[in-house]
Design goal:
The protein is 17% helix and 27% strand. It is α+β, with helices and mostly antiparallel strands. It has a domain at 35-159. A six-stranded antiparallel β-sheet has the order 1-2-3-4-8-7. It has a two-stranded antiparallel sheet with strand order 5-6. The longest helix has 13 residues, at 12-24. The radius of gyration is 15 Å and the shape is globular. The model is unreliable at 1-38 (pLDDT under 50).
């Protein structure tokens, strides 16, 4: 994401693990097919039900999510802390997000704010988007270059399930979230 240091080079260990798993998610090519016929309310409810267990960060860590210590924000708003599970990269199952977005709380901890789905672009070509996935009746953003060296071209979709986003439930940045 230009202008931000969300994927700062200091996080290379986590990035390396994510890259290896994400690159494995590139095949089969049809795996990221769009889910245009889904009922939004049913899918949002399924995503909430599946991620409710992660309100306690320990549950996310026990489920294989790895914390990025950087809290992402931009002039457009915040995303918070990212908890990645590279095994879920490529998933278009509402119950299986690749990233948990956690907002800082007043006690120095974090609380679950939303989720992010990440799907590698099948042909790794920024000029084509024939494999753009969709969920909840919304098309993913992208294709976009990787956010750090070695991360593949991909699509992503942010869903603010647990923290209201004045810009909309599926907006990339949440103006109601701050890292400070």
């Amino acid at each position: 994401m230009p202008g931000t240091s969300m994927w700062a080079p200091t996080h290379r260990r986590l990035a390396g693990a994510v890259i290896l798993i994400a690159l494995g998610a590139l095949s089969p090519p049809g795996a990221a097919a769009a889910d245009d016929g889904s009922d939004r309310n049913k899918d949002v409810a399924a995503a909430r039900q599946a991620t409710a267990q992660f309100h306690a960060v320990q549950g996310a860590l026990e489920a294989g999510f790895q914390a990025d210590p950087y809290c992402a924000e931009s002039p457009a708003g915040g995303m918070g802390y990212h908890y990645f599970n590279g095994e879920k990269f490529g998933s278009t199952d509402p119950r299986s997000p690749a990233v948990l977005l956690c907002a800082p709380d007043s006690g120095g901890g974090v609380r679950l704010a939303g989720v992010e789905y990440v799907v590698p672009d099948a042909d790794q070509d920024l000029s084509t988007d024939g494999d753009r996935p969709s969920m909840f009746g919304v098309q993913f953003d992208g294709p976009m270059p990787g956010h750090f060296a070695g991360m593949p071209v991909h699509y992503d979709l942010h869903v603010w399930l647990w923290k209201h986003n004045p810009a909309g439930m599926f907006a990339e940045w949440n103006p109601g979230l701050s890292c400070s």
